[in-house]
Each structure stands twice: as structure tokens, then as C-alpha cells.
Design brief:
Length: 176
Amino acid sequence: MSVFSLSFVSCDKDEDVSFEETPYYLGYFEGIVDDQDMSIINQSGYGCVIDHGNFWEETSTNMSGFHWEIPLKVNISDYSYPLLKISLIPLREGEYMIDKGKLLNEEVESTVRITKDDAKIVYHPLKSSFKIQVDSIRFHEGSGTPYIEGKMEGILYNIDNLKDSVVIKDAIFGIH
């Protein structure tokens, strides 16, 4: 298994925040990565650790998608920190069983992968599907970017060395 230098940051996150009070800088990831607890939460709109996602919608096909990245290290001053990259296509509530880390040619489907060391090492869901459960998708008035919350778990394998993997368990996430 790959060993990442992970930090644990604990922050208060009010679970009962109403929809109107959800901050525009929503971004959190909490779970177990390679047997280590990890908690990353944006504290304010300034200096977000988890940047807002990229939402797109094609009206002619009624297709939409959402892409975002989660740094798997709280101290992101180190340039080569690992990034968990997620694309959900089509964007919907429910369960995704993701089998790809990268799309080829004209494919349109969900992907998940980790890149580290400036993308020299890449992890994909090669042996089993990576599960993402989207529990809610909400839009604030005046915002074209959704607030998305859910859970995820799975194993991503080094595409060049299947003995090297990253295990993500019991993870919850939120992004805007």
C-alpha cells in the first residue's frame, strides 16, 4: 500500500446548518485514507483547501456533470501533494460505481483517480469499482453551481504497480 503523509485537522462542522446558511465556500472531506483518519474542511472563502467544483450542463442533450479535486494533504504548500480527482457524469443523486480513472476519446461517464508527484504516479479503480453515493444536490438562488454532499469508498491502484494502492473508507464529502 502507498503511504501518504497525511495530516488530521479537526474543525467544528454544524451538521444541522439550514440550506440558506450553507456557505458558498462549502468544501469538506472526512474519512480514512490508507488507515489514517483525515479531515479537511474549508474554514472561509479565503484560502480554501478544497476549491469549488466545475459544473457544466449541455442543454441540447440534457446532460450535466461536476468535477472537483481534493488534496489528500492538509498542508498544501508542498507542491507534489496527492490529488483525488472526481468527475460525476451525469450529475444526479444516487449511487455511482466508477470503473474508470480517465476517459478515452468521446466517452462520457464518471471517473475517479489520484495523482501524486506532479502526476508521475497515477491511481485508478482497476480491480473493483469505486463507490460514490451522492445524497443531495442543491442550488442556491442566484448560483449556477450546485452544492453536493455524499459518501465514498473504494480502492485505487497504481496503474504501473498493482501492489501499490490507496484505500479510502467511510468518507463523507461536500463541495460547491
